[in-house]
Amino acid sequence: MKDKLYEHGFVHISDRVTTDSVIMYGEMFGDLLRVRKHSLKDDTRLQLVNQNEMFGSTDVNWHNDCSYEKSEYHGTALAYLHSDEPTYTEFIDCNAAYDALSANDKEYLQGVVCHYAPSDEYASCISEKQLKIIKKANVHRNLIMDHPITKKKSLYLSYETLRSSNKKIDKHKLLEHCKNFSFRHYWKENDIIVWDNRRMMHRRPAFNGRREMLRVNFRYV
Q1: pLDDT value at position 56?
Q2: No. of H helices and E strands in the chain?
Q3: Which of 61, 62, 57 is nearest to 84 (CA)?
Q4: What is the pLDDT of residue 205?
Q5: How far apart are CA 144 and CA 49, in angstroms?
Q6: Phi and psi at residue 162, in whole multiples of 5°?
Q7: Per-residue exposure over 14-26, b if at least 16 CB sit within 10 Å of its own CB, e if not
Q8: pLDDT tens digit string along 99-141?
Q9: Residues of the chain with pLDDT under 50
Q10: How many CA atoms lie less than 13 Å away from 189 in the CB half-sphere?
Q11: Is 15 helix (H, G, I), strand (E, B) or coil?
C-alpha cells in the first residue's frame, strides 16, 4: 500500500470505518501527529471534521494541509462517516502539473520561495496559542519541492494560504494550469482515502446538513 501511495500520491481503501481502523491505516504510512484543536478527547491523533468542527459547512478552497506549520505534514488519511447529501473532495496531482510545465517555466519557478499563513477561515480552526506560534515561525517553502521519499519534483502551491513570494508569480494562472490535473473523489460508505500532502492539493465544496469525517495526519518515518 505504501508503494501505491508513493507511485500515485493517492490510495482508496474500502473498509469498516472506526477510530481504530483510521489509526491503523494512518500508521501504515508514518508517525501520526497529535493536534491541539478539534481532536477526539480520548485520542488527540484523531480529528473530527463535520459541520460544527474544523471548517464548518463552507467551501474550502485549494490548499495543502498545514502549509503554514513549521512541522512536516507528509500525508493525510480521511474516513467517511456520514453525509446528508452526496459530497466529494477534489484533488490536484501537482507532480503531473509540474511535469507539464514548459522548460522556461520550470527554470523560473525553481527559484521561487513562498510565504504561507492561515486565511481568515483557517484561523477559526486554530487555537490562539497556535496562531502566535505560526506567526513567529514565519514559514516559507519552495514552490518546487523534492519529495522526501521518491525525490520526484512537484509543485507546492497551497493556493489558499500562499501570501507572498520572493519572485513575482501569477498564482491564479498557475492554479488554472494545475486544475488540468484534477479529479474528484465522491464519498460513499466504508471509504478511507490517504493522500500525499506534498504532492496533492485539495479542496471541498460547501454542503448542507450533517457531514462527518475522521482524519489523521502523518509524517513519513
Answers
A1: 83
A2: 7, 16
A3: 57
A4: 95
A5: 30
A6: -75, 120
A7: eeebeeebbbebb
A8: 999 999 999 999 999 999 887 666 666 666 676 777 777 899 9
A9: none
A10: 2
A11: coil
Q: Is 33 exposed, middle or buried (0-12, 13-18, 19+ CB in 10 A)?
A: buried
Burial of 164 (0-12, 13-18, 19+ CB in 10 A): exposed
The two beta strands, 43-49 and 211-219, are antiparallel
Residue 71 grid cell: 512541522
Q: Exposure of 186 by Cβ count < 10 A (0-12 exposed, 13-18 middle, 19+ buried)?
A: exposed
CA distance readout (Å), 186 to 45, 47, 83, 94, 112? 25, 21, 11, 20, 34
Q: How far is CA 61 from CA 15, 43, 158, 204, in A?
A: 28, 28, 9, 7
pTM of the full structure? 0.92
Task: Note whether 131 and 118 are within 8 A (CB).
Answer: yes
What residues contact residue 90 under an 8 Å CB cut-off, 6+ apart? Answer: 182, 183, 184, 185, 202, 203, 204, 205
Q: End-to-end CA distance of the chain, in Å?
A: 15
**Number of residues written out for the chain:** 221
* Amino acid identity at 112: V
- Rounded Cα distance, 73 and 29, in Å: 12
CB proximity list for 216: less than 8 A, separation 6 or greater: 22, 23, 26, 32, 33, 45, 46, 47, 76, 77
CB proximity list for 8: less than 8 A, separation 6 or greater: none
Q: For residue 151, what is the DSSP state?
A: -
Q: What is the pLDDT of residue 124?
A: 61
